[in-house]
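Crash report, auto-generated. Payload:
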Amino acid sequence: GEEVAQTPKHLVRGEGQKAKLYCAPIKGHSYVFWYQQVLKNEFKFLISFQNENVFDETGMPKERFSAKCLPNSPCSLEIQATKLEDSAVYFCASSPRDSGGYTFGSGTRLTV
Amino acid sequence: GQNIDQPTEMTATEGAIVQINCTYQTSGFNGLFWYQQHAGEAPTFLSYNVLDGLEEKGRFSSFLSRSKGYSYLLLKELQMKDSASYLCAVTTGSGNTGKLIFGQGTTLQVKP
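Recovered output after restart:
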């Protein structure tokens, strides 16, 4: 499809619980990006993938956060043992290699 | 370091023209994007500048000066539906492979 599909739209977790977010990029887009937007503040880059390979993980917290993009499956972002500070909207974006720009999904609002 | 500045809030009148400025200091530059984000929705692409000059697209125009590290988004004939956040973002990667570095966003309120 021509949209980036993120599920679920809303996710509520108690402190210490696990949260898992999903993102289906636009077909044919080889790059996937995850961003975190806390309240109405700026987007913080977390991690990007080129197909199923990690491309840039410089924004990824060292602990508790992990992400995967496996063939024929939606990409996922998992937070182990959530903390209050993880409450945010998590956006996924995808892009083709050379032109066409970045397309964002509608986000998953995580409330801890 | 990476720094992108834009005003936090602006107010304008329906039918008027508004200019939203963005200054950036980044290690590398491969293009500047403007996105529009309505509350609770995904950012949507407005414009992309990689060369100096003005790009016009309907009521929206975007300008870039790489030597000054400066861009602006110009919105003409403002409509109530233009009330939204406007995000300035820079990429340093080639093509669409690099992460976007965002400013804090400018919340524009259009009044009747």
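Post-recovery validation: The two ends of chain B are 41 Å apart (CA to CA).
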